[in-house]
Amino acid sequence: MTDSDLTLVPSGHLKPLDVICGFQVRPGFFLSPGTTVIPGGVNFTIQSQQATSCELLLFHREAEKPFAVLTFPDTYRIGFVYSMIVFGLDIEEFEYAYRLDGPYDPPSGLVFDKTRILLDPYAKAVTGQSRWGCKNDQKHGYRARVVRSNFDWGEHRQPMIPMSDTIIYELHVRGFTKDASSKVKAPGTFAGLIEKIPYLLELGITTIELMPVFEFDEMRDCRLLDENELLDYWGYNPVSFFAPNTSYASTSEYNREGNELKCLIRECHAHGLEVIFDVVFNHTAEGDERGPYISLKGFDNQIYYMLTPDGHYYNFSGCGNTLNCNHPVVQSMILNCLRYWVTEYRVDGFRFDLASILGRNEDGSPMSRPPLLESLAFDPILGNVKLIAEAWDAGGLYQVGSFPSWNRWAEWNGKYRDDLRRFLKGDSYLLRAAARRITGSPDLYPPQGRGSNASVNFLTCHDGFTLNDLYSYNVKHNEANGWQNSDGTNDNYSWNCGVEGETEDPAVLALRKRMMENAFAVLLCSRGTPMFLSGDEFGDTRYGNNNPYCQDNPISWLDWTLLEKNRPLFEFVKYMIAFRKRHPAIRMDLPSDRFSFPSVSLHGVHPWQPVLNEDSHILCVLFSGFDQEQTEQDTVYLAINTYWEPASLLLPDLPFEWCWQIAVNTGDPSGPAFSEDTMPEASHTVLLGERSVILFVAKRRSV
């Protein structure tokens, strides 16, 4: 029987054909994995290639034992797909799970166990997870709930902002507003984030990137350290790929799970903001042989995970297992998952955690044309969403600049982060590399290929120091994580400006502020898509912890009192974001330059004479072109001095009726930024202060 063969009774409802465990049933929609609500019943569909039998378990809400166990008859199976419609079910009155039987041969990767309760891989909501910090009753296992799909999206369209105009702001939903200083009504939730939309609009970013919002169990590896409860706070251990993290909702959403997240996305779209999800398809919370059986292990362990020849788990993720992404079954699941989030939640893009795993073959070897990545690149439903790869993994594969892309994928540019961190703190031998990164990394993303739009430029992200800590600590301080400071990277390329950690020294604090201003000025004047970590705009700190994945406390929560304390830094970042938006020459090549300047060019203390040797610490970049939309010349000159002594800077010549005006000078003690109306005119020679950045704009002289 196929979906088209389903018999309809005159009322339009499907007709039951059998009775199982007291419920009227019939074969269901074999082409619709997961659950589907129909008039008078619910369709349940799962697949398993090696299972010999399947049971559907129905539970009353939070009950320990099922009130019904429905075994799928052989006639309710086609190929490897089990499908059954159960009539007379009220979706608000039950939870469901599965039990599968089959061969048990661990060396062959077969670990079926008919006693284990398994979560539907396509579950749209996971029960028992809605209260943050409450341990799931292991006797209950993980169960699913059927979700209504009737959200009103109104008339707001997805913004679809070009990569060249995008400014990404990475944040953790809980940590963004959990601290009392956020002063929101629903701290730590999607609703709390909605309350902060006016702040995001004031800042000027275009796109928020949410750290994992797929359902995860923050209590999975819960432990106590000096009376501090350490959790899986970041959430990079997915329990279900199709279900939102219900503990981020401010109210219970029985059978409407995800509504608050949808409200957040709708409100963002109404204000022109995009929402990107950080997605984790490289591993699951099931771990290795010692880990729990939640879902995929019990359905088809040898298909869903990369296994060694003797049945053990490859661990290219560093988290115990590795999803077998290029198996056709897993490909299909991932593609269906992303389509679901785009169609049901109107998500604007995805950042793929440890994305190089998505390009590994079933034996772990890298593939030249990974079918999953190619399918995502050309899928019509995903045609307008952003696809951003973290182009490396924990197994040593590093593909920044070489990630299989089909001119569709962008990448977190890890080389931008590393080269610019070192250059900005004054390291030698970095000027040539810094010049490449600021001008769009043409060595990684040639203009005739993907171009600079493929480069997501960043200096900070959730993983590593905040920007404040980058200039406050020489080394990591992760003792609170409980691993004797052995976790987290040692390659931070940071500089404490003379004092390790907190200080009241005004000279050190002034230097740190200038270093952060330099970083933002250069980031927002670089070709490519800028991204920065939430809180960096007002100097948020994690007290030197560069891996607070387990810290659900003020170490990770944004301290909003710093917004007022460091208001000048916030105003500078806001100014720089607006400056980037006003000057398209920074973001892209513009035609027909009136000054006969190239679109991008490098300079030194003398114009047109860049000094790219190992001893040089001064780099100037000229962006120029004619903005046809605004019918005006757009020319910006970025001057950077990372040395500890000032230098005399000669500016490029302009036509007589034009002059250079100073838009930013981080070395000016009276203030680093000027408004469009108050930019002072620069003389032909300018003093470029030590460890400072000056931005010049070409303007017509007043008549």
Your description of this structure?
- The chain has 703 residues and is of the alpha/beta class.
- It has three domains: 3-102, Immunoglobulin-like; 166-278 and 371-387 and 398-582, Alpha-Beta Barrel (TIM Barrel), CATH 3.20.20; 585-700, Immunoglobulin-like.
- 19% of the residues lie in helices and 21% in strands.
- The protein is built from 14 helices and 30 strands.
- The strands form eight sheets. The protein has an eight-stranded parallel barrel. Strands 1, 2, 3, 4, 7 and 8 form a six-stranded antiparallel sheet that branches. Strands 24-25-26-30-28 form a five-stranded antiparallel sheet.
- Strand 3 and strand 4 form a beta hairpin.
- The longest helix is centred in the middle third of the chain and has 18 residues, at 328-345.
- It is elongated and about 90 Å long.
- The model is unreliable at 1-11 (pLDDT under 50).
- Keywords: Glycosidase, Hydrolase, Transit peptide.
- Residues 170-580 form the Glycosyl hydrolase family 13 catalytic domain.
- Belongs to the glycosyl hydrolase 13 family.
